[in-house]
Amino acid sequence: MNTFPIDLGAYQHITLNASNTTLTDEQRASLKANIQLCRDAIVFFTATGAARGVGGHTGGPYDTVPEVVIMDALFRGDADKYVPIFFDEAGHRAATQYLMSALNGDLPAERLMEYRAAHSHLPGHPELGLTPGVKFSSGRLGHMWPYVNGVAIANPSKVLFCLGSDGSQQEGNDAEAARLSVAQNLNVKLIIDDNDVTIAGHPSKYLPGCSIAKTLAGHGLTVLEGDGENIDDLYKRICTAINTDGPVAVINHRPMCPGIIGLEGSTNGHDVVSVKVAVDYLESRGRQAAADHLKGIKAPKNDAVFLGSGDKWDANRNVFGDAVVAIMGRMSEAERIEKIRVIDSDLEGSCGLIKIHNAYPEVFISSGIMERGNFSAAAGFGMEKGKQGIFGTFSAFLEMCISEITMARLNHSNVLSHFSHSGIDDMADNTCHFGLNNLFADNGLDDGYATNLYFPADPLQMKACLEAIFFNPGLRFVFSTRSKVPTILNTQGQDYFGGDYKFVSGKDEVIREGTQGYIVSFGEALYRALDAVERLKQEGIDVGLINKPTLNVIDEEMMVKIGNSPMVLIVESYNRKTGLGSRFGSWLLERGLTPKYAHIATHKEGCGGLWEQFPHQGIDPAGIMTNVKDLLKANPDASAFPVL
Questions:
Q1: Which of 296, 324, 343 is the last residue of a domain?
Q2: In whole angstroms, what is the distance from residue 433 CA to residue 453 CA?
Q3: Residue 605: how many other CB atoms lie within 10 Å
């Protein structure tokens, strides 16, 4: 491992006391030196994630360095006064936690250059118990303040900080947390980076009229606003917050990524800094060794060849948008305005909704990070027969919308929802952003309003699926992955879902026949399962493969076919406790079908990185083949099974 090319030993471990609200010249100089050192380090090691292709986030950690180094000095000045944890409800600011762990001696500085890499224990969101020095799991955006309230209740004599942002404050959780903190007079100090930037835009533009300061004041908090880049004013306001009884919000206005040419004030600053911008920045700061290290990084590649799949790969999350645009293109503008409304939750670029936004802005609503309210708005629009709302966000956030989904069903709403980033593939953000519990959406009663869950296997099936279900009534949930997927081929080497293929809702599909049993899979696990099937056949093990693109509907004919085979293996990237496999065995038994049965799925916390998540869970082709062989060992007569 190369030596970290920025000397973190230059960090000055100064002490500050909130009873002195004015900085001395020496303290000011030390803080400014620490701020610049930390910002240089953050630009460098987050850019290693960009260079390796695992992404990351630079802007949030970079922005909040001034308040963090002040907090660090305060913790050191009077440790008994505080709960000395840098609680942060903007989970993508993981770089803050890792840098402070290194500065405090818990993590070797060299490890920072493995930022977000597989098995590095430095995932895109910090996880308690995984990374040395990390003292909490941040989870998803806007989830920490309510939790910190509880920590404050447990520590009534101490001051607690919670770093926030104008993005995290859009979540409804924070409104509830604000009311409780005021009602209980909790000694929680919110330090909010208000940079007017989120992933897809500027809150001042898509939520005009909304003011974080006025909102929090309306809840009853003391609010202290100011320039986050003015170190004297920032320090004074933080001290005032500490010396004020009860909850206080210190709101810091600054542009995103101040001082970084090419990023300042831009939405691009939310994500990871590009290598070029980082190199230019570091060289301008005299950090040539760091710049040279970035130039020499080579991104690792997954060289695996997947049998049974084509060489064309595409991201289904973007194909969703293309398919919807094609369908809406056959409607008149008046008809689109009358019947369709698309509501985004600040993730239009990630979910493919940007394609719709660009093509038909007249039906598109750019909204904030308010998944529950946005889904309900889409459902309300789709309450009337013939109208439908379209909603999109990450699959991990589906869990936040369960009650709203129930209400939409009870009101017979028509909603087409796209939940991207399903499963675990390419998920360097790691465990808190895994889309594992998507079958929770199927939470209605047997006689409830129609609810179907779809997970197309490749780009061609995604298009065919949307063509088939777009105008159907009811709740329709379409899932896709963050990763690209290849096209599935038939036994003649042609696109399985090409040509005259028509998607039929509720029908399972035989991808490969087999005489010794079947694997049942879907989504991004299907092409991996197909690779395993092809390799098993080469070894003389004749198992087949079934695609189940409609996850929650039983195909009775197919159940009989596979249920009468010697063995069934369910392969999925969903949660082993809540996924398809947790239901499928019961479906078989209810029909008197008793093949040898096994189920492999995501069952442990992630390892970071990208494709490495699949072998980590044992659901890659090698893991699938091992499980098939284990099942067949338990049924030595499987070779006599006839194809039905």
A1: 296
A2: 20
A3: 17
Query: What distance in Å separates the CA atoms of residue 229 and residue 506, rounded to the nearest whole number?
Result: 57
Which residue blocks in 53-158 are alpha helix, DSSP H?
59-63, 65-77, 94-103, 144-154
Residue 160 belongs to a domain: yes
Type of residue found at 58 = T
**Rounded to 5 degrees, what are φ and ψ at 254?**
-165, 155
| 577 and 536 housed in the same domain | yes
- Residues 315, 220, single domain; the answer is no
Element spanning 341, H or E: strand 340-345
**pLDDT at res. 575:** 98
- Predicted pLDDT at 263: 95
Query: If we measure between CA atoms, which residue out of 191, 168, 154 comes closest to residue 65?
Result: 191
Residues 40, 6: contact at Cβ < 8 Å? Answer: yes
pLDDT in tens, 577-629: 999 999 999 999 999 999 999 999 999 999 999 999 999 999 999 999 999 99
* CA distance to 544, 565, 624, 625, per residue, from 637 (Å): 16, 11, 20, 18
Instruction: Verify that 44 and 106 share a domain, yes or no.
Output: yes
Listed in sequence order, the residues at least 6 apart from 592 whose beta carbon sits closer than 8 Å to its beta carbon are none
d(CA 249, CA 265): 23
For residues 326 and 237, state if they share a domain.
no
- Domain shared by 292 and 318, yes or no: no
> Does 10 map to a domain?
no
The 8-class DSSP code of residue 54 comes to -
Confidence at 638, pLDDT banded by 50, 70, 90: low
Residue ranges making up the domain that contains 110: 24-296
How many domains is the chain built from? 2
Residue 402 lies in a domain: yes
Q: What is the dihedral of CA 241, 242, 244, 249, to 10 degrees?
A: 30
**Largest alpha-carbon pair distance within the chain?**
86
Is 643 a residue whose pLDDT tops 90? no
Q: Which amino acid is at 592?
A: G
pLDDT digits (tens, 9 = 90+) for 477-507: 999 999 999 999 999 999 999 999 999 999 9
Q: Does residue 304 lie in a domain region?
A: no
* Block residue for tokens 């001395």: 24
Token pair 């930037």 is found at 197
Q: Is the pLDDT of residue 644 over 70?
A: no
**Can you give the CATH number for the domain in which 282 is found?**
3.40.50.970
Domain co-membership, 290 together with 330:
no
Give the separation between CA 559 and CA 563, rounded to whole angstroms.
Answer: 5
Residues 267 and 317 in one domain: no
Average pLDDT of the chain to the nearest whole number? 96
Among 464, 643, 459, 444, residue whose Cα is nearest residue 553: 444
User: Is the pLDDT at 352 greater than 50, yes or no?
Assistant: yes
Quick check: pTM over 0.90?
A: yes
Angle made by CA atoms 258, 259, 264, in degrees to the nearest 5: 55
User: Is residue 349 domain-shared with residue 400, that is, in the same domain?
Assistant: yes
